[in-house]
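step=predict obj=Sugar kinase n=315
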Amino acid sequence: MSEVITIGEPLVLFGAAGADELDKELSEVKHFEKYLAGAEVNVCVGLSRLGHSVEYITKLGEDPFGIFIKRNLKKENIGTDYICSTNDYPTGFQLKSKVSKGDPKIFYFRKNSAAAHFDINDLDNLDLKGVKCAYISGIFPALSESTRKSVYKLLNSIKENNIPIIFDPNLRPQLWASREEMVKTINDLAFKCDYVMPGIGEGLILTGSNKKEEIADFYLKKGVKFVIIKLGEKGAFVKSKEGSYLVEGFKVDKVVDTVGAGDGFAAGFISGLLEELSMRDSIRRGNAIGALAVMSPGDNDGYPSKKELIEFMKL
């Protein structure tokens, strides 16, 4: 089995391409470029490029998008042994605008997707031998009742095997029936994990506070070991029962696309844990990949190899 295991929904991304599409509404964009996307996919890509083995659990449609995703996962050396397929539902995809500043607009085509119909029984034959950590995102449990049950089942199996769990809330309000359901479910999942990594804005939604210390304490009181709050260009704030500190971010010459920065951070951080770096150095590595991510157009195009990461961190 791979070092890292995750579950999620990979997507085909059509990103607005070319100078003529800059700052246009998605309905007006004529030219798109196709990419592999999805938060968990991005983390897998980042880890694989750094030399770590990752296994991805999901369900794809038996269609051109599903073929594209599986082929590209294999190109990135991501494990596909636990990817199921179906003829009954399509593979999800999304559109992304191109902007001169701020976050691009995203529109999803994932309702009733193949991944949303992931069957909890598909986890029955899961082999966790050799797995060193698990990455769980708050996106997959938002897709349907069956995906939510599957995440809980996977979490329980992971905990029974004493495998550390890294959790990124990755809030997607448009995928939930209500804000209240989202907050309750995400927090319930977070309380079961060892490392929780919200963005500062997500922290406000999930805890009612925009103060770093209070957000961290909210989770620490529930048994979470480390809370890492992502602060964008400012870096990341870390707190555990032993204390707290800020790890500064890296300077970015030009922001091209902000999507994928948080996932890049997760990949860098997890790679540090796997290589037994200190918490501070692991988070610094996460900050570095987050910075590299925003300087490239695709969700994960800017993720570096180990050599490229080391060179960037020397700057």
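step=describe
Residues 152 and 189 are 8 Å apart (CA to CA).
step=end
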